[in-house]
């Protein structure tokens, strides 16, 4: 007769009294103290759970006037040098501040030496009606595990840009948009950038969306009449032109029609020569047709 043995129980019984020597235990404790718990996830739920730490008078010290000015100057220099109009932020007609886009928020986060952790704090997933809604919170954390900034974003499948589409088809898009909004909000907060950027009209982002076909430049012209951008505006980027051409193709607008339009509106004989501001105007008008 074969006797069965519980090897796991046997091993546990043999090792139950084994304790690491004092030097080893001290090393283990030191490593655990240096691991930023804010970078970890709950082992049960796999969701990020920020840890609240006690704040002392020393750690709560604010910036001096000189330090605050230096931070502001450095941030403005970074934005002017690194961020690209139409890619990292968008110029919106009739809005006195540009809108910060996802790629710009990511660059600001990397510049400040922060990493993002996202938590879905609320979700509605109705598979019977095809309605999906998400609320996300993004925590920006430094290498010591200290939360330096937070942002919140909400999006649902009944918003204007998704309302005419199948809710099931845009579920993942809605979730990604929620995370993006939270990330942009966090970047604005941690960089003290509310005076320079807005998020109120952040939905004009330059990410491709489904568009109806067959629209002409004449329909664009009837949508809005705007003047040309200042002569000092930077030229449109290659990414702006590529995305504009994608929209032109989706709407059935020929290169000849677009050249005619930009000639009448901006005094430019070739749409490849338009400014970044003008490219943003055209892209936004196409998106408004959806």
Layout of helices and strands:
Elements: H1 7-15, H2 22-34, H3 65-82, E1 89-90, E2 99-100, H4 102-111, E3 115-126, E4 131-141, E5 147-156, H5 171-190, H6 217-223, H7 238-251, H8 255-266, H9 276-288
Helix pairs in contact: 4-5, 7-9
Model description:
- The protein is an alpha+beta fold and 290 residues long.
- The chain has two domains: 37-51 and 65-198, no CATH class; 212-290, no CATH class.
- The chain has helices at residues 7-15, 22-34, 65-82, 102-111, 171-190, 217-223, 238-251, 255-266, 276-288; strands spanning 89-90, 99-100, 115-126, 131-141, 147-156.
- The strands form two sheets. It has a three-stranded antiparallel sheet.
- A hairpin with a 5-residue loop joins strand 4 (131-141) and strand 5 (147-156).
- Helix 4 (102-111) crosses helix 5 and helix 7 packs parallel to helix 9.
- The radius of gyration is 26 Å and the shape is extended.
- The termini are far apart.
């Amino acid at each position: 007769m074969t006797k069965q043995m519980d090897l796991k129980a046997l091993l546990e019984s043999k090792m139950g009294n084994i304790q690491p020597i004092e030097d080893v235990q001290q090393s283990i404790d030191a490593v655990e103290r240096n691991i930023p718990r804010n970078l970890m996830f709950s082992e049960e739920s796999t969701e990020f759970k920020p840890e609240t730490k006690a704040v002392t008078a020393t750690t709560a010290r604010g910036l001096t006037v000189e330090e605050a000015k230096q931070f502001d100057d450095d941030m403005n220099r970074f934005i002017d040098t690194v961020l690209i109009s139409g890619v990292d932020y968008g110029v919106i007609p009739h809005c006195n501040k540009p809108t910060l886009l996802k790629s710009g928020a990511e660059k600001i986060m990397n510049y400040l030496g922060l990493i993002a952790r996202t938590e879905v704090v609320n979700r509605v997933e109705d598979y019977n009606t095809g309605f999906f809604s998400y609320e996300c919170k993004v925590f920006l954390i430094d290498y010591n595990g200290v939360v330096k900034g937070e942002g919140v974003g909400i999006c649902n499948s009944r918003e204007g840009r998704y309302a005419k589409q199948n809710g099931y088809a845009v579920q993942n898009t809605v979730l990604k948009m929620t995370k993006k909004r939270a990330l942009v909000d966090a970047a604005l907060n941690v960089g003290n950038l509310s005076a320079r950027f807005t998020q109120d009209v952040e939905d004009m982002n330059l990410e491709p969306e489904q568009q109806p076909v067959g629209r002409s430049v004449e329909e664009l012209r009837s949508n809005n009449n705007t003047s040309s951008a200042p002569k000092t505006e930077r030229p449109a980027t290659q990414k702006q032109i590529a995305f504009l051409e994608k929209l032109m193709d989706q709407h059935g607008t020929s290169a000849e029609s677009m050249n005619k339009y930009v000639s009448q509106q901006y005094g430019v004989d070739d749409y490849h020569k338009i400014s970044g501001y003008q490219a943003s105007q055209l892209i936004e008008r196409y998106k408004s047709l959806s």
